[in-house]
Amino acid sequence: MSTPLSRLDPGTVADAASVALEHEPVPADQVVAGTPATGHLVLDDGGTRTIGVWEMTPGAMRDVEADEVFVVLAGSATVEFEHPPLDSIELAPGDVVRLEAGMRTTWTVRETLRKVYVSP
């Protein structure tokens, strides 16, 4: 059985789909449209990698990415890549994406997007 843990210890289960996240407004210089807010929770910071849950409410924002792999748990969004110039991607539950440090992106969230991420 899973429980809404705030830490992922060995041999435990965290319910990443329902764990409560505190949201903060996206800084004004990153907002492209709407009034998006983000929230995150680090479940494990083992020194060599970080595992966490991140969420963004509807709206659009610019970001500079870190190295990470993530799995979308809920919601829908489009990610456009300013640098390097790549085709935009559509995100939906079940999608797995890899980002590299320094990528400049614009996230347009239509339905609150929640993901689990792993970063070095």
Keywords:
120 residues, mainly beta, Jelly Rolls, globular
Structural write-up:
The protein is mostly beta strands and 120 residues long. It has one domain: Jelly Rolls, CATH 2.60.120. The protein is built from no helices and 9 strands. It has strands at 23-25, 31-33, 37-45, 50-56, 59-64, 68-83, 86-91, 96-99, 104-119. Strands 1, 2, 3, 4, 5, 6, 7, 8 and 9 form a 9-stranded antiparallel beta sheet that branches. Strand 6 (68-83) and strand 7 (86-91) form a beta hairpin. The chain is globular and about 40 Å long. The N and C termini lie far apart (28 Å).
Q: Can you give me a brief rundown of this structure?
A:
The chain has no helices and nine strands. It is mainly β and about 120 residues long.
CATH class: Mainly Beta
Structural class: mainly beta
Distance between the termini: 28 Å
* Main sheet characteristics: 9 strands, antiparallel
**Strand share of the residues?**
over 45%
Question: How much helix is in the residues?
Answer: under 10%
Shape: globular
The CATH superfamily is known as Jelly Rolls
Low-confidence stretches: none
Q: From the 3D coordinates, which CATH architecture would you assign?
A: Sandwich
Q: Please count the helical segments.
A: 0
Topology record:
Elements: E1 23-25, E2 31-33, E3 37-45, E4 50-56, E5 59-64, E6 68-83, E7 86-91, E8 96-99, E9 104-119
Antiparallel strand pairs: 1-3, 2-5, 3-4, 4-9, 5-9, 6-7, 6-8, 6-9
